[in-house]
Amino acid sequence: MEKVPGAAAPAKGGARAKLIRLVYLSMRTRDLTAEDVDQIEGRSEANNLAAGITGLLIAQGQYFYGVMEGPRRPVMQRMEVVITDDRHMGLRILREEEIVARRFANWSFARLPDETTTRSFGMPLPGSFILELSRRLA
Ligand SMILES: Cc1cc2nc3c(=O)[nH]c(=O)nc-3n(C[C@H](O)[C@H](O)[C@H](O)COP(=O)(O)O)c2cc1C
User: Pocket of ligand 1, candidates 20, 40, 93, 109: which has the most ligand atoms within 8 Å of its Cβ, to mutate?
Assistant: First the structure.
């Protein structure tokens, strides 16, 4: 039990393991089908929960904006998998920082309407929400 890597249980200094937060931006490589999105959401939720990772993933238009937080090792291991996922490319780590407390209680996924959709409702956005967010964090 105490040998399970990344377990949320406070085994061998687990409760005090250094927490980090990664903030990243990437671009999707193709149009994502509903199945792609379901799969990303489903696997991420399950894997992250098992690894003690919290955070969020926002998809808007061609961009993904993600935050991952948790003990350094599991976060880095998960990021190694995510970074090679061919459903997106050009992943840029905007921030990597040690944190004392988590900002997110669990992992969640959100899809924002892209700008073209929003524009057709007569409410133009000043620019991609995700890009604006990443500019503020860079
Ligand atoms: C933008 C993006 C973000 C992702 N974020 C996560 C994540 O936070 N956690 C995760 O386990 N998988 C994430 N994935 C999926 C992984 O790349 C990979 O497909 C998945 O972890 C494989 O899980 P499995 O081996 O359990 O099927 C993400 C994929 C994309 C395209």
Answer: 40
Ligand 1: distance of its center to the CA of 120 in Å?
32
pLDDT digits (tens, 9 = 90+) for 9-59: 444 445 568 999 999 999 999 888 889 989 999 999 999 999 999 999 999
Arithmetic mean of pLDDT, 75-91 = 97
Instruction: Assess whether the C-beta atom of 60 lies below 6 angstroms from ligand 1.
Output: no
* SS3 (DSSP) at 92: strand
Is the per-residue pLDDT at 2 higher than 50?
Answer: no
Q: Measure the CA dihedral 137/14/106/110, to 10°.
A: 40
| Residue to probe by mutation, ligand 1, list 77, 81, 130, most atoms within 8 Å of CB | 81
11 burial level (CB within 10 Å; 0-12, 13-18, 19+) = middle
